[in-house]
Design a protein that fits this description.
This protein is α/β, with parallel strands linked by helices. It is built from 2 helices and 8 strands. The longest helix is centred in the first third of the chain and has 12 residues.
């Protein structure tokens, strides 16, 4: 049996203000927004990129966020990237720097409170 050729098409978010939240994420990813009514689509940027789709929130935000994005940057770039994202309107939640040896990350929240992580992995040593 051949393994399926599967990739992430888009990460979907409900938002109180889809256009505003999409503008934040467009600045994060470098995507150009495509607006259709009250929905906004951000296409993938470059090979390995991912799309994002924003639509109007249909109910109250759950107390516990069941999923979140883990974004990866090159080793040594996490602090600078976190500062850039804070400048765009993200909120700092916490750092995890010594829980496991293969990753360090910072958890942030976007302007509507959706948490996401910015991670860096040390170079592999053989």
């Amino acid at each position: 049996m051949t393994a399926p050729q599967i990739s992430l098409g888009a990460f979907n978010l409900e938002a109180q203000e889809p256009t505003t939240l999409a503008a934040f994420w467009a600045a994060v990813t470098g995507a150009v927004a495509s607006v259709g009514g009250e929905s906004v689509y951000l296409p993938p940027v470059g090979p390995g990129g991912f799309g994002m789709f924003f639509q109007r929130q249909t109910g109250p935000r759950p107390e516990h966020q069941a999923s979140h994005l883990d974004l990866t940057v090159p080793w040594g770039a996490r602090r600078a990237e976190v500062q850039r994202l804070l400048g765009l309107g993200a909120t700092f939640c916490w750092d995890v720097l010594d829980e496991v040896p293969h990753v360090q990350w910072t958890t942030l929240a976007d302007p509507e409170g959706n948490r996401f992580c910015v991670a860096e992995h040390p170079p592999q040593t053989d």
